[in-house]
Specification:
The structure is a homodimer.
Chain A lengths: L3 H11 L2 H5 L2 E6 L2 E6 L13 H22 L4 E12 L7 E6 L3 H14 L1 E12 L2 E14 L6
Antiparallel strand pairs in A: 1-2, 2-4, 3-6, 4-5, 5-6
């Protein structure tokens, strides 16, 4: 997996809304991606985080995990989100984080096995929305990876 | 319901991410809100619309309908999103719209009746994501309204 500065630069360059949101890549390993964003650019009429920003940060954390882990494993893929659910459990009055964790290696192995054989595969990932160390919401999304070429090498 | 210029100004002032996204209020009636956004500030690594932007525009369209319709009917409320689902049916390679429609007056009446009696009520709204006149995705969200004061007058 690339280092967080390279990932940060990629995300800012290719998804400009992440710059407007003030997204920072805090942690990026094959099993965990943590993104953060400050309140100010993501504030709403209630002086808490806009649901659209919370949702976008979660989508971005799950996408970052799948995109950069696949890239690190040598797959030339495009990764897009197919669908998601999002629960907003409480108002967020300050900076917030989206934490996407993949703790099921068997799920990843099945995903990449299908991707290798069928050139396309889906994976379901969760991301928790956090504020001040407490859970503030939960995202679950299905991401689809499709090979750019017939050979993933 | 307020006119679209007033609503546009409110949204831009209170939810700054809408400015970064280039959100325009195209239509706003008690039964329909249409918001649009251009591709450029919402682009992703695939040169199509970032899922987070698509999701945010849908959330904003449903919120705008409920917030401004309640305000127009004299309710002093705060309106927040509680949860949502979002399906991204196809890539969006250009400007896009979120169209939130409330075509069930009985649903609205039940919502405001409960809001008046219990000071808090939920309503489920859909918004379709559109591009070039075609459907590109579907949002369904639950919004919660809570009275600011005991009397809605």
């Amino acid at each position: 997996m690339k280092d967080i500065h390279t990932i940060q630069q990629y995300v800012l360059t290719h998804i400009p809304l992440s710059g407007a949101m003030g997204v920072q890549v805090e942690e990026a390993t094959p099993n965990k991606v943590v993104l953060s964003a400050p309140l100010a650019p993501n504030i709403n009429h209630r002086d808490t985080v806009f649901g659209g920003s919370a949702s976008a940060l979660c989508i971005l954390s799950a996408w970052t995990l799948v995109h950069f882990r696949l890239e690190g494993e040598g797959y030339g893929c495009r990764v897009v989100i197919q669908n998601n659910t999002m629960a907003y459990d409480r108002p967020i009055p300050e900076g917030f984080k989206a934490v996407s964790i993949l703790d099921d290696e068997a799920k990843w192995e099945k995903f990449t096995r299908i991707l290798s054989s069928r050139k396309k595969a889906r994976i379901v990932l969760n991301a928790s929305l956090e504020c001040g160390g407490k859970k503030a919401g939960l995202f679950e999304g299905t991401l689809v990876a499709a090979m750019r070429s017939a050979s993933p090498e």
